[in-house]
Amino acid sequence: MTPPDAPHNRWSDLDRPPLNVTALRRGLLRPDVLWSELEVVETTGSTNSDLAERARSGSLAEGTVLVAEEQTAGRGRLERSWTAPPRSGLFFSVYLEPGDVPVERWGWVPLLAGVAAATALAKSAGVDTALKWPNDLLVTVEGEERKAGGILGEFAGDGIVVGLGINVSLRADELPAPTAGSLVLAGAVSTDRETLLRAVLRSLEHWYGEWKAADGDASASGLQAAYTAGCATLDRTVRAELPGGNSLVGQAVAIDGDGRLVLSTEGGLQQPVSAGDIVHLRGAAGGLT
User: Fold this and answer.
1) Of 121, 128, 141, 150, which one is least surrounded by beta carbons within 10 A?
2) DSSP bridge partners of 136
3) Number of Cβ within a 10 Å radius of residue 262
């Protein structure tokens, strides 16, 4: 371990060991589970882009997992970049084929991944993790909500690629923005990335199985209730910055059956939002997010 007062090398850090792909495969790949293939690469532009390209070529099996120790062109929502030092987090994508689930319900898959990740991180890292609609993972650092992870889903081939980026061991001087956080800064009891990755993938398998068994019905599978319970956006005044440059301000009152955020606006109108960037204006946690 590096002494506390020793300088840290951003690009080669003994406190950030590489993932053990053999151990991960042994723990995750079995005939009776969702995960069929797991690959760890040292660096790539974007795991989502890599899997989506393979899916479009028809050469990808459901349950494929691609993990990168470093992403040089990681993408978040609205084509925002996602960068972090090598081995400082979990950067991975999975390929899922919901099959007979009506395609109009597939929009729940990224939200499902959020529930799975938040649940797993709370248990395996000991960090309370909340969901900011639609696809951000929030932790509390020094009394403030910070973004520690994000999720991106995109249709590809016969299925959907879902990418997750989670800041695990980023230190304060490595954060890309003042609103960013990490598990270690939130007081995680474990930052072992193999433990965390196994926990997230097993949780994702569980929720995906429940959702598919209910034919993609978010209510019947318990997914809608779970997302609602963990969503930090609800019961707050928010501004939805909508595609096209418009915006809408209101109180976030519900997540509807289609996964949309329902805002109560002036005059008591209930306005569902299916896509947009959400800014938390006021709420129990206070401040701007």
Assistant:
1) 128
2) 132, 150
3) 16
Q: Read off the tokens for 31.
A: 């005939």
Output the CA torsion 241→244→246→249 (10° steps).
-30
User: In whole angstroms, how far apart are CA 149 and each of 32, 173, 178, 192?
Assistant: 29, 17, 14, 16
Residue 22 in tokens: 């053999």
Q: How far apart are CA 25 and CA 203, in angstroms?
A: 16
Distance CA 1, CA 19 (A): 17
- In tens, the pLDDT along 101-121 reads 999 999 999 999 999 999 999
How many Cβ atoms are within 10 Å of 222's Cβ, its own excluded?
16
pTM of the model: 0.91
CA separation, residue 112 to residues 14, 95, 184, 204 (Å): 34, 14, 24, 8
Rounded to whole angstroms, the Cα distance separating 126 from 188 reads 6
Q: Write the pLDDT tens digit of every residue in 44-57.
A: 999 999 999 999 99
Residue range 230-281, pLDDT digits in tens: 999 999 999 999 998 999 999 999 999 999 999 999 888 999 999 999 999 9
Give the separation between CA 93 and CA 163, rounded to whole angstroms: 4
Amino acid code (one letter) for 80? R
**Cis amide linkage into residue 134, ω under 30° from 0:** yes
- Residue 3, C-beta contacts closer than 8 angstroms, at least 6 positions apart: none
Query: Which candidate, 121, 141, 135, places its Cα nearest to that of 192?
Result: 121
- Strand bridging mode 89-96 / 64-68: antiparallel
